Amino acid sequence: MKRKLLFLVSALIAVGTLALAQSGPLGIAYQFTHTQNMDPTFSPDGKEMIYISVVAGKEQLFRVGLDGKNPLQLTRDDADHEDPAWSPDGKHVAFVLIHEKVEQIHLMDPDGGNVTPLTPKESKTIHPSWSPDSRRVIFCTDDDLAPPKKNDSDILAMDIATHETTKLISGGVNTFPVWSPDGTKLAFRRMLGERNSEVFLANENGSDPKNLTNDPAFDGWPAWSPDGKQIAFASNRRGNHEIFVMNADGSGVRKAANSEGRATSPKWSKDGKKLYFTNCKKVDLGIDCEIYAIDVPR
């Protein structure tokens, strides 16, 4: 009996060894599907966000709670929708609608209804942000008309009721404008060379601009903390683009998190305890962009 059992075990081992010997080398699996989710903006109560997700090659706007479950698609037309910004009073969302080479800021209701143009069709306008009282939208003209070269771009503000427009910053490449929570200051990105971008601070009307970051790297995408005491921004000063935080006067710069890929567009949670940002990285044959969240370093 023992001899038969030993023979059977030996036969099974031989068959297994033969099967392994006959199989070819294992293939290398690679990621085939890719997603792009980016640029969140938060509701006034901080419980929801609207963000961009690429669907069938077009940037569409989605709305979701902070648990990330059951996102609702708000836009469905054959256009790209960028730079969403939820108004502080919760009534409107400003965004850039891009269709047939026209870049125009529009307003819509938070449920995706009542989409109406805000800026003139003939002017290419991007990066909308709101005044604290929700009466004005601040934005800039497109600085990428002939990429990769940058062209001059101005920062303007428009009254949404009257459409009266005021130029706040001009001369050079000025983008990503955001008013402070109390409305007294204006942070924005200014190019000082082909590869040198800085975060600047000015008065709310654009006067007395000052360089806050003063670094030879590419700094930009400023975002005010809810209490107005800090500014988050993205920079490649340590290699890849990462998220940093500084005091509102430019002091106390510190890295917020380690992130593989290209981290940009930071946004604060309404309680000021977290930062959300877009992180894009190459994965096998494509690029993934996802929204990340981190606790703010103290």
Automatic annotation (TrEMBL):
Keywords: Signal. It holds the Pfam family PD40. The keyword Transcription regulation does not apply. InterPro entries: 6-blade_b-propeller_TolB-like, WD40. It comes from the Bacteria. Residues 1-21 form the signal peptide. The keyword Lipid biosynthesis does not apply. Belongs to the TolB family. This is WD40-like beta Propeller. It comes from Koribacter versatilis (strain Ellin345). The lineage of its organism: Bacteria, Pseudomonadati, Acidobacteriota, Terriglobia, Terriglobales.
